[in-house]
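Prompt: Have a read of the protein record below and flag anything odd:
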Amino acid sequence: MFFLAIQLWWNSFTLLTEATSTFFFPFLLTFLLLYLACAFALPDPGWRKSQPGGDAPRSGVSTETLGTEPSLDLKAFHFSKAHRRWFFGILIGSLVAGQVGTQVARALAEGFSASRVEMLLNGGVAVLLGTLALTDRWWVHAPLSVLSFLFIGRSTVLIVLGG
């Protein structure tokens, strides 16, 4: 989420300095959804307590043995159905809103049509994010998460360095 926030901010900086009211709302929605995605990245401290029926699996160690409440299971949180749907759904929404804002800004500023390559790339990313939202299999999440991290990290470095 850190690399994604940096990349979105850096990419939008030049467009936002020349912003008009025409594409203000798509960018506002993009940044709002980015904020929500960052908020959904980690659980609230009371997440485990609020799960009806215990969406998070129990560790098998009683609280009496530990003397404190059991620690939060981040793996259970990440793979919980509610978290997956909200988190990846918001990322998809942010991607779509960003795509609309970017295409509108380019069309107004430079007067050319939408970039098909960019739209196909973002469509592919949306399909991958949708896959992550629908499945709780670690063998699907692990490689896609690593590839996403490397792709976003690489593109962020290239954009910041001007490459």
Summary: The mean pLDDT is 75. Residues 81-110 form the longest helix (30 residues).
